[in-house]
Structure formats: C-alpha cells, structure tokens
Amino acid sequence: MSFADLGLMPELLTALDAVGYTTPTPIQREAIPVVLTGRDLLAAAQTGTGKTAGFTLPLLQRLSTTPVLHPAPKHRVRALVLTPTRELAAQVGESVTEYGQHLNLSSLVIFGGVNINPQRDRLRKRLDILVATPGRLLDHVSQGNIDLGGIEILVLDEADRMLDMGFIRDIKRVLALLPKKRQNLLFSATFAPEIKTFAHSLLDNPAKVEVAPQVTTAERVSQRIYPVNRDAKKALLQKLIDEGQWHQVLVFTRTKHGANRLAEQLDKDGIPAMAIHGNKSQSAREKALGAFKAGKLRVLVATDIAARGIDIDALPHVVNYELPNVPEDYVHRIGRTGRAGAGGEAISLVCVDEHKLLADIERTIRQKLERVIVPGFEPDPNAKPEPLRKPQGQRPPRRQGGQGAPRREGASANGNQSRGNASGNRSGDVNGNRAPRPSRQEHRQDNRRNNASGNRSGQSRRSQGQ
Q1: Which of 18, 87, 171, 327 has the smallest count of CB within 10 Å of its CB?
Q2: Long-range contacts made by residues 67-74, C-beta under 8 angstroms, separation at least 24?
Q3: CA–CA separation, 409 and 317 (whole Å)
Q4: Any idea where the Helicase C-terminal domain is (predicted)?
C-alpha cells in the first residue's frame, strides 16, 4: 500500500516523496483514512511508529479541502495540537511545515521557556494550525492573544503522558474554550483505564485504532542488563563507550541533578557530553539536541520527560544509567533506538538498589533480559540496597494545588513565564524538580499561625510547628 492509496492529495504526496517516505506505517494506514472522513479517533501508538504523520497529513488535507467550519470576522485558528513537552511540540511543528510546504496553510508552535512576545505578535496574524503545550497556550488565552472559538480539529498527542504530568485541569480549561462541533483525535501510547475514561468524556463515537500491544519493546532492539555496584556505574559506562567506540549514545537518569552530574563527569574525562532536562533553558536544550543529532556530541544525558519528542534516525545506543520507577517508561526509553527498520542496542546498568525495578520491568515486558558480567565490575553479592531517590515530577501525583502539584512545562527555569499577575513568579518546568510554592490557603494558615504565636509569646509553641 502506498500513501496515494490512502487518498492523500497530490501536494502531500509530493512533500512525502521529497523526504523519501513511500510506504505508510501501520498506524498511518489505519489512522489516515479515518481522519479524512472527519470522524473522531482514539489511537494507541508508541513513539517512533509514525503517529505524527498519521494525524498531521490528514489534518493538512482536511483544512485545505473543507470550508471554514466556524467563520468569524476575525481570523481564527482552525486546528489545535496539544503536546506535553516542548521537544514534542517542536517535532510536530516541523512535520506540519515539512508536509504542508505545498499548501496555503500557516502554522505556529508555542511553548514556554522562551520570550512570549514574539509568539503574541505572530498570533495576531493569519494562522491555521497551532501546536502548543498546555501552560503556554493558557498564558496566551489569559492575555487575550488568541481566540479558540474557531477550532475545527483538536489533536491530543501523547495524552497518557499529559495526564501523568498532571495537565488534566489545564486540558479541561482548554476544552471549555473550544466549540462543541469539532473533530477530536486522541493519541496515546496505551489504552490505560484513565485514558479510556478520559476518551469517553471527550470523543464522539470514535474509531479505535491499536497497532501494537499495550506494552511492547522494539523487536529490533538488543536488550542487556549489566549488574554493577552503584559507585562503579560511571566507570563501567565509560568503559563501554570507549571500548565499543560508541559515537552516539542517549543515556537516561532519573533526576535532573543526576543528569547534570553525569554529563559533567563524562565531559571532564574526555567524552563530549551534555545534559537535557526541564531546568535547562530552551536555547540550551536546542543546542544540546542539535549537536547530538549532528554527531558533534557523543553522549546526551536526559531525564524521561525531557527526552519525549527526541526523534533521531538510526540512534544506535540507549543506556539506562538508572532504571525508571515506572516500567512503561523503560519501553519509551529503549524505543528511542531500533527505529525505521534500523537495529539498536539498549543497555541497563543495574545495582542492588534497582532489583525490584528490574523485576517490575521484566514482568511488564514479559521477557527475562540477558545479564552480562563485565570482568572487574562484578557486583558485591553482600551489598545492601539503599532507598532510591525518587525523581521529583517525573510521575507527579494528579492532584492540583498545594505541595503535590506538578510543574507546568511552560515555565522556564528562571521564571520567565507568566500567567497573569498571580502566576508570573511561579517558575518551574516539566520535570517539576523545583519545590512548588505554598497555595494561598497555606499562606493564610501560615499567617494565622504566625499572628497567633506573636500574641502568645509566653505560651507553648507546639501547635506552631504543626
């Protein structure tokens, strides 16, 4: 089957031919015809399966061939694509530009961590397709920079990750601003129960497409476990890189601090490395990713959420320097390699602290992974496990407000994002490693306690510390 067999217009076929795409992937074969009919869609597709083209191509065609559904005196955005991270938003935006190069459609990508003013100025001009992260989109809404009343097609990309990151309240706020008559496309890595519940409230009699089992690991990826003592991981990683002559390897850590520390140590020891995570400025993240894609950087150290949207052709090596707390994230990590028909290698350095995490992963993927003991790096059989440091914000609780609230992706590390006067000082990022400030209610409670303690200087202060 070819893309022409799916009913795509000549302008899109020309663009696909220019980038060398001739045969649609399974998700594209299933999704494109459904989207072209205007029907709602619920699709399960892992990253790396071609899902972005699966919704981008028919979206472009529908906007080009159908009349404006919600006409207004002032031009309105017709299609909205919501993504959980900046990197994924940028990737989708590139696909829209690439595939739509022969169409008279305009597009824009907006996310936090960068100056909001150029985005505001661009939103005042003609715009057909908007790709956005939830936080920055709501910033523009609060400032009156955008009208969402003309949306004809809504795409929620990686909806499972958006729910996991605690964006459900932001998504509901966005949905309340959209016209009821529209086409909805929801893409998720799995059909988890919470996704099914959310989809039921959002989609109208959707077609359901699932091109892979809910949790699968890439068939072309060679997976191995290297048991090692926790304090010998860095030395073993260096040995593998040097002796294997690896020139491009993506390394995962659980925390931002761990990513920074490992990248600095590798770079100091002569292995060019940089870290990418939510606390990095957008320019720093783009610089690191660009150097890595261009082959100028041997090692890119990343946290889970920052790596979403990284799309690198023929990436040969992925290393789990630390195992993820959530088994499904292991699948997402190793899915960075073994793409587009190429082989890949996924290696995990596992110390005694991570044995339970490893067992959870093997149970999830229904596979016993090969163990490889490297001479000189044999793990101590008498080593005792230590509590793992939890990655703050990687899998945040889904409640909003207070100390448990996750950070929005839209805020830069130095607090450049503003959401009106009330939120301009709430700096944060996708990984949420910066402690959230107390809510207003907590501030009022603190003030009452402080005032009361000031008037009871001679009394017991036991309640003051509670």
Answers
A1: 18
A2: 68/150, 68/152, 69/150, 69/152, 69/179, 69/181, 69/182, 70/149, 70/150, 70/151, 70/152, 70/179, 70/181, 71/150, 72/147, 72/149, 72/150, 74/147
A3: 27
A4: 236-380
pTM score: 0.58
Report how far residue 128's alpha carbon sits from residue 75's, in angstroms, rounded to the nearest whole number.
9
Give the class (CATH, top level) of 4-210. alpha beta
Q: Are the beta carbons of 247 and 317 closer than 8 angstroms?
A: no
Contact status, residue 251 vs residue 319, Cβ threshold 8 Å: yes
Burial of 180 (0-12, 13-18, 19+ CB in 10 A): exposed
Question: What's the topology of domain 221-371?
Answer: Rossmann fold (3.40.50)
Over the stretch 250-292, which tens digit does the pLDDT of each residue have?
Answer: 999 988 899 999 999 999 999 999 998 877 877 888 888 888 8
Which segments of 303-457 are extended strands (E)?
317-320, 344-350, 370-371
Size (the chain), residues: 466
What average pLDDT score do residues 383-393 get? 70
Query: 30-34, 121-125, 173-177, 281-285: which range is least confident on average?
Result: 281-285
> 86, 113 in Cβ contact below 8 A?
yes
Which residue from 236, 224, 82 is spatially nearest to 161, judged by alpha carbons? 82
Pair of tokens at residue 336: 């960075």
CA distances from 45 to 48, 52, 186, 311 (A): 8, 10, 10, 15
Residues 6+ apart with CB under 8 A from 35: 41, 54, 55, 58, 59, 62, 183, 185
- Each residue of 441-462: pLDDT tens digit? 444 444 444 444 444 434 433 3
